[in-house]
TrEMBL record:
Signal peptide: none
InterPro entries for this protein: DHBP_synth_RibB-like_a/b_dom (IPR017945), Sua5-like_dom (IPR006070), Sua5/YwlC_C (IPR038385), Sua5_C (IPR005145), T(6)A37_SUA5 (IPR010923), TC-AMP_synthase_SUA5 (IPR050156)
Binding site for ATP: 52, 111, 137, 145, 189, 224
The entry's keywords: ATP-binding, Cytoplasm, Nucleotide-binding, Nucleotidyltransferase, Transferase, tRNA processing
EC number(s) on file: 2.7.7.87
Family note: Belongs to the SUA5 family.
Function: Required for the formation of a threonylcarbamoyl group on adenosine at position 37 (t(6)A37) in tRNAs that read codons beginning with adenine.
Annotated Gene Ontology cellular component terms: cytoplasm
Subcellular location, record wording: Cytoplasm
Name of the protein described by the UniProt record: Threonylcarbamoyl-AMP synthase
Amino acid sequence: MRVKATEENIKLAGKIIKEGGLVAFPTETVYGLGANALNPYAVAKIFEVKKRPTFDPLIVHISKIEWLEKLTTQVDEKALKLIEKFWPGPLTLVLPKSNIVPDIVTAGLPTVAIRMPSHNVALALIENAETPISAPSANPFGYISPTTADHVERMLGDKIDLILDGGKCPIGIESTVLSLIDEEPKILRPGGLPVEEIEKIIGKVKIQPSSEKILSPGQLKKHYSPKTPVRIFKSLDELSEINETENVGILLFKKNELKIKAKHIEVLSENGDLIEAAANLFSALHRLDDSGVSVIYAQAVTETGLGLAIMDRLRKASAPAEN
Ligand code: AMP
Ligand code: MG
């Protein structure tokens, strides 16, 4: 349903987000497809709706600076100067993440991208939701970013709980993404805030050279993959060939009786629900990786809906290390 962004409707939208639903909302850059950033199941639904064949890290939108402390473990002086000057506005900062940020928000990375939008509707929505909102652009995979509610409605109208119509986005291109993880700040994506403006405040910043440009954020080399070797299996019968003297970890899509003993088992979704499985995937991989097993057997899922992105991630995890 598409509604005008009145005070009353923003309240309703906030409630929908708080309760785990999806709301498309205007920001000064583009329309975002928002979910409660602290609810992994709600965030998984974003990927379901966008039909992205990969998981990629999402920007977390905040309305108050207090959230920055809760979502990160370190905010250095450069970050503070930039925030002082450019927030609210089209600048996204990548910082070390705290434990409250679910792994699906960051695609398993130890860092989180945060921004405070300057659009009044976006700010009011976050306030009403009483939680940070993670949101990519509100378009299906492969389509251009929406800058009007009409774009969103045409592309995703039947798939989301509410579209807040706040008119045309004033900037119309995405935010500039700046990583403050390494000693030298680095532009990961040029966007609505010019690099020159950033350099006036913190000095020279590196720009990711085009040779390193990623075709899709999901192809980022630093994307999380377990250190433990991962092997994908299709049917449970294949597990009977496992040598039990191996220190085995198993990642099951749904609950199953196993005939073999494993040191650590993770079940992504008791009933085999793809959205729940996606919400749990990264945390489960982390736990398996930390459990001290020497190999992880991961159950294949059907490649429909979120199954496509889940399999993309499992294949990446099972491919030999690139470097
Ligand atoms: P979009 O979802 O279209 O707004 O794009 C979000 C951008 O932020 C993408 O280019 C992501 O790769 C980038 N991004 C989000 N989180 C991180 C992170 N933790 N580290 C690096 N880049 C990130
Ligand atoms: Mg996008």
